[in-house]
Amino acid sequence: MKTLQELLNTLPQQGELRWIGLRPERRAEMISVDIAAVSSKSGLEGDRYQGRTGQRHVTLLQEEHLPVIAACVGRRHVRAEDLRRNLLVTGINLLALKNRIISIGSVELEVTGLCHPCSRMEETLGEGGYNAVRGHGGVTARVLTDGHIRVGDSVALNASVSDR
C-alpha cells in the first residue's frame, strides 16, 4: 500500500499545451499565438503581467474544465480566451501540480497556487459567471527557466519544490 506522499508524487501522465494567449493590457482582447518567449525575470513576453515579480508570471487553465464552466452558465461552450488565462493545457490534472515544478517543452515553471476568478467573469459569462469559474479557474505559475513555449509542447511533472 502506498503512502499519501507516494500517491501525491505519482503523476505519470503528460499533458499537452493547446493554446497560448497574451493580454497586452488591462481589458484588451486576448491575442492568440502559437509560440511565446518566457523569462524567469519578466514572465511571458507580450503579456500585461510581463515584468512583474512574484508568483504569477503565467496562468494555466485545464481544457477539461471548459465544458464544466459552460454547463454552469448554461452555454454550449466557453473559450479559453473568455477566461483570460495564458495557457490552455489538456491531459494532466493542473490541481495536482500545486507546489510542483513542471516543464512545458524545455521551459520549467513552478506552479504557485490557484488562479481565482475575477468579477469580470460576470461580464463575460453572464450572471453567475464568477461562481461558475470557482474551482475551475486554473493555476498560477512562476517561470524558472528562460525559453520558448509552443502550442503542441508536452506538459509534465518534473519535481516537487521541496525536492530542489
Low-confidence stretches at least 5 residues in length (pLDDT < 50)?
none
- In spatial order, strands of the major sheet run 1-6-5-9-8-7-11
Number of helices: 5
The helix fraction, in percent, is 10-25%
The average pLDDT score comes to: 90
Please state roughly what percent of the residues sit in beta strands, choosing from under 5%, 5-15%, 15-25%, 25-35%, 35-45% or over 45%: 25-35%
Task: Walk me through this protein's architecture.
By secondary structure, the protein is α+β, with helices and mostly antiparallel strands. Helix content is 16%, strand content 34%. It contains 5 helices and 11 strands, in the order αβββββααβββααβββ. A 7-stranded mixed beta barrel has the order 1-6-5-9-8-7-11. Strands 4-3-10 form a 3-stranded antiparallel sheet, with no helix packed on it. The longest helix has 7 residues. The protein is globular. The two termini are 26 Å apart.
